[in-house]
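tool_call: predict_structure(chain=1)
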Amino acid sequence: MTSPGAADPARADPLETRGYAGRIPLGARTLRQHAARGTLVNGGFQVGVVTLNLLKGLIVAAFLSVSDFGLWGILTVTVMSFAWLKQVGVGDKFVQQSEPDQRVAFQRAFTLELCFAVGFVALCAALLPLISIAYGDSRIVAPGILLAVALALSAFQAPLWILYRRMQFTRYRALQSVDPVASFIVTVSLAAAGGGYWSLVVGALAGAAAGSVVAVATSPYPLALQLDRPTTREYVSFSAPLVVASLASLVIAQGSIFAAEAHLGLAAAGAIALAVTIAHYSDRVDEIVTASLYPAICAVTDRRDLLREVFVKSNRLALIWAVPFGVGIALFAAPLVHHVLGDKWAPAIVLLQVFGVTAGLGHIGFNWTAFYRAIGDTRPIAIWSVAAMITFLAVAVPLLLTHGLAGFAGGIAAMTVTSLVVRGVYLARLFGSATVVLHTVRAIAPSVPAVALVLGLRLVAGGDGAARALVELALYLVVTAVATAILERSLLAEALAYLRRPREVGPAA
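tool_result:
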């Protein structure tokens, strides 16, 4: 990869060309600079929103009883797993396409998205009463339908796809943040007022409504309904494997909560929901990286060497964050529960520890699906998801039934291993050779001295007070940061260099 300042607009390399087929308004930047800057600047902006969601979950967990949080876990897993069937890649396909009339292309994509949203609400309304019977709790029906309506409203946030395709990330992220910020304010206010799990439902509805109003009001194209058979067939071909992948994810998510609640009770379901909430924090951050790069990946799919470069460097940057976060969750799970969340969450400690480690390792090659979506081959994604589902059913569920939450945690670890193996096979096919082993070792290395220091202190000095935990956390963060700066200094220097303003004068992207 050339240095940021060495770009020559006359070169044939698409990442060094000022503009790319009129698709992305780059201004004075190259596509390489624009993608990197978007990942760092706009990704950093969105980290605040992701952190807000994590804080919302922790704050609400403090106000709600374990049973109420368990009921919310059932609601979110049930409705959100159905929502995966709605999110069948319409937005991804819109970003990938290169139709001459983008207004018409958007309106056709919006029409399909709206159809999926309406079907999603109808599906939830039909199935939620049956699911409530299976759980033996009719309380999930009414809030579940309202939560489904909130998710369906996101169809009216489709105009944000246009900004996303153009890689106008600052505006895109700013508008996208309206939903979670409004949700946070309403949810926390209602939870503090004693609203129970309804605070989360009403907060989700308020956030979706606010985000949709802002998206429609600022849309570059007017909303209109347009159905076109060839376009529909093209979208269906792209989306069908993603539907299979979503069904597999639905089985895993729904099976986790259902089996835990049926065998161990509602408190166990709440423990799983809490562990997933915290562990998924690292997933959301990496989703930012993938989202920032996806339009650029779609623009250079004819260059496998460039795709490989983007994959390698984006994964190295992501693992710098994901591994220390996951290891930190595992290392400080007990202090988090005892000194922050309360001892009522003690059964979740083992889950947090295992979920933390698997969350860190699970980010190896985390964004591989974006590259397969960009080249229009979504079948490997379906195969990968089905393999993970089979491992879940064959290992995680039986272990939960025989060994409780600790057994379930072991099953999740086995599912992570399966996921990494299948992912590695398809990465080798796409890029011609295995490229992740070295980067994995480099990502784990900075955490090794930090973990050794904390464990050494615990072994020598003992004690588990809150002040002691804060000191250990500070040491862990400092040592990890120093080790990362030493081992990845060249990559970090290159990434920071992309933040410099381009020398040429041009309109801002």
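agent: The mean pLDDT is 80. Proceeding to next step.
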